[in-house]
C-alpha cells in the first residue's frame, strides 16, 4: 500500500531554529573519509572538512561504529581525538574473526572485554556493545551458526558492563529476537539498546519496541513505501537517527525522495551541500555518492513529514534527548 503524505499546511521556503543532532551510527573509520576508495587514493584527505560540514549541519556529536576488534580500537582512538563516542563489538559478517583469532574465540572475546574496560569513562568512551547481531543476507561472509554463536557471546559483554546494545538485523528477525530473549533481553527495561539501520516490517518494529529496544533509521531505512510505513510506526520515545556514513545515502530513487523534496532551501544547503564527482574532487565539497554525517538532517526531515502534525524541531529535540538518555551522554545536555 503506497504511503501518501498530504501536508496539513504549506511547507515554508525557509525554516529558522536550532536543530541539534547526534549521529548514533557513523563509520568514520572508513578510508573513504581520507580519500582512499577501494584501496586506492583518489583525492586529498578531507576528513576534517567532513567534520566541519557536520558541525554546520547541527551535528553536536557522533557515535563511531566499531565493527571488529581492530575497527573498535580505531573508533575509540578517533572518538578520543575528536570528543566523540564509540561502540565496541564485532559485526555479524565478521563473526569468523572470533574463530580465526590467535587463541580462539575466548581470546577474541577477552580482547573486546579488555578494550571496553579500559575505555568506560571520559572523553572518547565506549557507550554501547556492537555492532553485533545477525545478517542472513550475507552468510557467504559468515555462516548462520557462526553468527548466532558469537552474537550470544557479545551479549555477555552488554550484561557485564550494563551498556546498551548497538544491534544489526538483516533477514534474521526470528532468530534475532529469540536469542535476545534467551539471553534476558526480552522484556521492556532501561538502556536496552538500539536496532540500527532498520529495514524491517511494521510488525517487527512493534515487537522490538515492546521488548524495550529503540529503532534507528537512515537513508537505507527509507528506500521503499514499506520502509516508510515501518518508519512511521516508530514511537517518538523509541526513535533514534543516524547516517551510517559513508553508506546509506538518500537518493532520488528512494520512496523518501518525494518527502525530501520539500526540505527548505535554508536546510538543504546544510544537510546536502553541493557535491562533486571523484574525478573533479574539490576540497571543501562532499564527494558525490559518499554519505556524510551532515545528511542526518535529511533523515529527520523525512520522519517529520511522515508525522506531519509534529513540528520539525520537536522531532529533532525528542531524538536528541532519547540519544542522551539511552547512551548516557549527559555532558551533551547543555551542548
Short description:
The protein is an alpha/beta fold.
Descriptors for this entry?
335 residues, eight-stranded parallel sheet, 12 helices, 10 strands, 14% strand, globular, disordered N terminus
Question: Can you walk through the features of this model?
Answer:
This protein has 335 residues and is of the alpha/beta class. Helix content is 37%, strand content 14%. The chain is built from twelve helices and ten strands. It has helices at 47-56, 69-82, 96-100, 105-117, 144-161, 173-182, 202-210, 225-232, 257-260, 265-271, 296-306, 312-327, and strands at residues 21-26, 36-37, 40-41, 59-64, 85-88, 126-135, 165-170, 193-195, 214-217, 239-241. The chain has an eight-stranded parallel beta sheet with strand order 1-4-5-6-7-8-9-10. A two-stranded antiparallel sheet has the order 2-3. β6, α5 (144-161) and β7 (165-170) form a beta-alpha-beta unit. α4 runs parallel beside α5 (144-161). It starts with 20 loop residues before the first strand and ends in an 8-residue tail after the last helix. The relative contact order is 0.16. Residues 1-10 have low confidence and may be disordered.
Amino acid at each position: 500500500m503506497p504511503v501518501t503524505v498530504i501536508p496539513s499546511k504549506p511547507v515554508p521556503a525557509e525554516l529558522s531554529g536550532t536543530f541539534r543532532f547526534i549521529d548514533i551510527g557513523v563509520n568514520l573509520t572508513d578510508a573513504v573519509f581520507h580519500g582512499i576508495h577501494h584501496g586506492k587514493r583518489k583525492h586529498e584527505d578531507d576528513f576534517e572538512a567532513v567534520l566541519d560540514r557536520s558541525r554546520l549541519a547541527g551535528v553536536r556529536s557522533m557515535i563511531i561504529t566499531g565493527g571488529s576488534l581492530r575497527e573498535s580500537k580505531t573508533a575509540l582512538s578517533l572518538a578520543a581525538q575528536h570528543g566523540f563516542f564509540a561502540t565496541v563489538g564485532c559485526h555479524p559478517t565478521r563473526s569468523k574473526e572470533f574463530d580465526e583469532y590467535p587463541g580462539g574465540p575466548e581470546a577474541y572475546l577477552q580482547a573486546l572485554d579488555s578494550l571496553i574496560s579500559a575505555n568506560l569513562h571520559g572523553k572518547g568512551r565506549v557507550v554501547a556493545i556492537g555492532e553485533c547481531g545477525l545478517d542472513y543476507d550475507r552468510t557467504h561472509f559468515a555462516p548462520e551458526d557462526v553468527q548466532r554463536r558469537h552474537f550470544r557471546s557479545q551479549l555477555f559483554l552488554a550484561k557485564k558492563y550494563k551498556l546498551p546494545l548497538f544491534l544489526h538485523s538483516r533477514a534474521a528477525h526470528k532468530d534475532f529476537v529469540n536469542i535476545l530473549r534467551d539471553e534476558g533481553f526480552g522484556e521492556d527495561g532501561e538502556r536496552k539498546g538500539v536496532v540500527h539501520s532498520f529495514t524491517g516490517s511494521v510488525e517487527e518494529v512493534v515487537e522490538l519496541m515492546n521488548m524495550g529496544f529503540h529503532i534507528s533509521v537512515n537513508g537505507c531505512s527509507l528506500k521503499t513505501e514499506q520502509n516508510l510505513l515501518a518508519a512511521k510506526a516508530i514511537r517518538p520515545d523509541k526513535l533514534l537517527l543516524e547516517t551510517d556514513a559513508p553508506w546509506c545515502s538518500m537518493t532520488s530513487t528512494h520512496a523518501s525522495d518525494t518527502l525530501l523534496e520539500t526540505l527548505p532551501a535554508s536546510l538543504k544547503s546544510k544537510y546536502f551541500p553541493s557535491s562533486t564527482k571523484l574525478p573533479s574532487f574539490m576540497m571543501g565539497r562532499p564527494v558525490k555518492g559518499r554519505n556524510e554525517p551532515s545528511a542526518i538532517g535529511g533523515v529527520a526531515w523525512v520522519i517529520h513529514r511522515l508525522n506531519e502534525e509534529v513540528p520539525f524541531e520537536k522531532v529533532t529535540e525528542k531524538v536528541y534527548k532519547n540519544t542522551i538518555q539511552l547512551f548516557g551522554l549527559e555532558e551533551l545536555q547543555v551542548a
